[in-house]
Every structure is written in C-alpha cells, then in structure tokens.
Amino acid sequence: MPVSVRAAPFEPYAEVASHQHAVFGASGQFGATAVFVGTMRDFNEGDSVQGMTLEHYPGMTERHLETICATASGQWPLLETLVIHRVGDISPGEAIVLVVVWSAHRQAAFEACREIMEALKSQAPFWKKERLATGTRWVTGNTAGYPASKS
Amino acid sequence: MPVSVRAAPFEPYAEVASHQHAVFGASGQFGATAVFVGTMRDFNEGDSVQGMTLEHYPGMTERHLETICATASGQWPLLETLVIHRVGDISPGEAIVLVVVWSAHRQAAFEACREIMEALKSQAPFWKKERLATGTRWVTGNTAGYPASKS
Amino acid sequence: MITLKLFASLAETHGWRERERTWVAGTRVIDLWCAETGQSGLPARVLCARNMDYCPPETPVFPGDEIAFFPPVTGGSHAR
Amino acid sequence: MITLKLFASLAETHGWRERERTWVAGTRVIDLWCAETGQSGLPARVLCARNMDYCPPETPVFPGDEIAFFPPVTGGSHAR
Fold first, then answer.
1. Quick one: CA dihedral A8, A111, B49, B7, positive or negative?
2. Confidence at B151, pLDDT banded by 50, 70, 90
C-alpha cells in the first residue's frame, strides 16, 4: 500500500501499470481497478496560471497518506492501494496526484478511491502557491478548524 | 467520445495515456481524470475459471455504449470519455473493460465514470461464457424484464 | 423481409443465429418468437430488440426490421 | 527542547520555518504560538500539529515535541 511524495514529474498511467505488474504479475486476482488522476490546470478562479509550487510537511504528509489508505482498507475489501503526490514546482498539464485502488469488487474500488481522494484533500498537509502573470498567490483551503486525527 | 469493441487484448493504461495525449496534448485543460478497469478474474462463484468468451451484438453494442456516454455527458460537465470493451476469447488477468472520464471537476469525473460503468453492465449487449475445468457455462445476468431504452 | 437474430445461449439452444422471414402485416415481436421457437410466450429471461433498441414484446414489426432475442446482458467484469 | 515549525504562507509571513525552544512545564500549543508571534490567540485559519498529528490548540506540550503551525491544506488538484 505504498504512498509516495515526489519532487519530479511522473507519468501516472505508467506508474499504475508497473505497480500492478509488480504486485499482481499476470494473475487475475483483482477484478476492479479505480484510478483518479488530478492534473494541474492552466486556469483557476478565472485567472491563467503559469505554474505552481506545492509545499508539504515531510514526514507528516506521508504518515497521513498512509493512515488514509489504511483506513480505507479497513472500510472496504481492498487488495492494494497506491498514492503518488507531486511537490515542488509544477507546470500546467503535469499530474499532481494519483490514487489507485485494486479490489475484487467494483463498488469497493470506486468508493475507496473517491474516499481516499477526499480524505487526502482535507487531511494531508500540502499547500499550493500559484504563479500568475501578476505574481504569486497562495491557494486558500476551505477547511475551518482542525481536521479530526485519524491515527 | 470514442467507444471501441475489441477482439484483441489491450493495455488499458497505455490506451488512457495515448488517448489523453491525442485529445488534450500537453494542455492543462482538464483537472480530473477518473478511470475504471475491469479485469478478468480467475475465480467466479467459487470456481476456478480458465478463460471466457465474450459475445456481443455488433452495431447494437457500440450504439448503446455511445448513448451511455452521451447521456453521462449531458448529466455532468465532461470534457471527454473513452470506453473500450473486449470481446472474444479472454484469459484471466486480461482487461475486459476500460471506462475513462476527463473533466475539470473531480466530482463529475468520479460520478460519471461510475454511472457509465453501471449503465454499461445493465444495458450494453454483451454475454459471457466461462471455461471451467468441467466445461463451459453462460454467466447469467440479474436483469429481469427489458432495460429502458435511452436512445 | 424481416431479419431475425439470436445471441449467446439462445443461439446455442435453438441452433441458429440469423434468419430472414417474409413480413406479415400485424406481426408483433412476440409473434415472431412464438412462430420460430414453437413456444407459447416469451420467457421472462429473454430480452428483445427492434432495430438495435430494446423493445417490449408487443412492439409491432415492419418491413426491413431487424428483430433480436437474447438473454440478460453480462458486460463489464465479474467484479460486483 | 521543543521544535517549532511554520509552513507555507505562515513561514513567509513570519520569516522563519523552524526553530528550537527550551521546554517550560505547563506549556500548551497555543502558548507557543502566542510567544513566538506576539499574537494573543490562534487565528481561525491556522492549524496546529503535535508530533505530526493534528491537535487542538490547548494540547499540552512535552520535551522533545515537534509543534507545527500551518494554513488549511490544499492538496490534490484544483478540480473541485
């Protein structure tokens, strides 16, 4: 159930294919794979965005991603999960986040993938700073108060 | 919004990457991609399955897949969809179905991907015959009566 | 003419996949099923389609139509 | 000793990212924030963590703790 925080660009679908091969080989053990990829858009809130910088809290970020995946694995019958999240300087069109869930069950795969993604957005410590033509700005989250710790 | 019915094995993640590149290039137009891959399992209902044969209704199958994707595109703000479904002789571990949805919105991508997959299972004319050690058997669906036509 | 098609287990059971029949005025989809199979009604687990759209068994048939009968569909993967 | 960390806009605003302080018995997370920033309370949009777990501002601090302050998180993509 690996989680990975990367400073370099990654190709999400190559990561899915190679991780699946490494974990399952050619076996037909899983029946359902749900994947979500978040990609950097070149527009946000009406402004053209030239790039962004993603900061994280080394250690805490990985730990919370692991907790999020473990929580989902306790809630649904999952065979494997994979989460990769970019940090550092990111250009439009580059993948920011990859969430993959393998299960024998379609519903479990869909629901767990979505839940991991929602939990990641609300709990994992990442902060975005956008580069606009007019300068930089921090993207402000909507969270009020502190999220409940899941660990 | 292509749909494709294939008699030959396909590598789902290579298909996603190449279709995305063909449609969007390196642009950051979409922000969210949701993918579902159904893979042939080597077990079903307690029996070890050696392979299966998927039959379809050429013409009607493609038409209903297109209608399903068009219906989802009317219901959510989608930028692109891709559906690939295998037919013919399939071995365990091979991909059976791929559903991909690109959107600017995470929720739309998740929900539309799931809805397309559910509609595909209940409406698109495909029939499975499993090869067991003891012979072959048709997989029986749960549908009673006729599905409402969406076209 | 009318084109008739059977798929999957129905094609195996009845031993044919496609045949043509002359159109007769007033024919409904269910009538074609009964005439070709010798059965008195459409089994609950047989679906029918007229010109590649699902249809109720009572749907009238017209010249040039393609009428198909098949079992409930089982697309996607086994994953429930 | 206590390790203090600021992230993102807080680090920029206050001009530091990490510092160490001697532990004082009875100190709570909120007390560290007020002592280091000169503010009288924790703004609504500042989160805190003790040893890499989110915590309420009233959480007591112990020797060796790592206490962090940061804005609401914005991981994932822009896609809502």
1. negative
2. very low
